[in-house]
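Open question from group meeting: does this chain pack into something compact, or does most of it stay loose? Before anyone orders reagents, we agreed to write out a predicted structure and look at it together. Recording both the input and the output here so the notebook holds the full record.
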Amino acid sequence: MSPALTLLLWAFEIQDSIFLLKRMAYKIRHSIMKTFEQMFILM
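Structure tokens returned:
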């Protein structure tokens, strides 16, 4: 495999993992917001 191709695949993998991390962070933030809303309703 040529170095350029390896580098390209590596870049794609990094982008993919960044995307997954962003999605995870979004889900966590979303659930935290939901929890806060429920706490405020209970108060």
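Observations to bring back to the group:
The two ends are 61 Å apart (CA to CA).
The helical segments are 3-42.
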